[in-house]
């Protein structure tokens, strides 16, 4: 019951976010606010770099943990891998793909906005 309620709340939140993202600014009674100057130019790249490093560390831990499943001598873990027909190559590929895509986008963004 709680799982269904949480699912509906998350779905409602995403739909509301998408709808409200495209509402014209004239509909909003809230003040518009943005960062300019030193705060926007100096703080954003630092926060973006910190976020990128945290994401890379999390993804590397996930890839390492996924790879360690297949070398484990745990009988229960091996039976689960066989039950779901998991193979090491595809699992590592699909786990590492977001990391490769994010690094590629970060490099392209850096070269695009650094000049």
Structure overview:
The structure is a single chain. The chain is an all-alpha fold and 115 residues long. It has a domain at 36-115. 77% of the residues lie in helices and 0% in strands. The protein contains four helices and no strands. α2 (37-70) packs antiparallel against α4.
Strand content: under 5%
The major sheet is characterized as: none
**Tally of helical runs:** 4
Spatial gap, N to C terminus: 53 Å
The rounded Rg comes to 21 Å
Q: What is the element layout, followed by pairings?
A:
Blueprint: H1 2-21, H2 37-70, H3 75-83, H4 88-113
Helix pairs in contact: 2-4
List the keywords:
115 residues, single chain, 4 helices, flat, mainly alpha
Brief synopsis:
With 115 residues, this protein is mostly helical. The chain contains four helices and no strands.
């Amino acid at each position: 019951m709680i799982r269904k309620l949480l699912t509906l709340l998350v779905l409602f939140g995403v739909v509301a976010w998408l709808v409200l993202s495209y509402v014209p600014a004239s509909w909003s009674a809230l003040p518009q606010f943005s960062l300019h100057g030193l705060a926007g130019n100096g703080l954003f790249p630092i926060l973006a770099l910190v976020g990128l490093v945290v994401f890379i560390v999390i993804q590397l831990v996930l890839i390492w943990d996924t790879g360690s499943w297949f070398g484990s001598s745990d009988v229960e873990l091996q039976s689960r891998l066989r039950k779901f027909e998991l193979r090491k190559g595809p699992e590592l590929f699909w786990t590492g793909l977001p990391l490769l895509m994010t690094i590629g986008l970060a490099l392209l963004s850096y070269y695009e906005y650094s000049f």
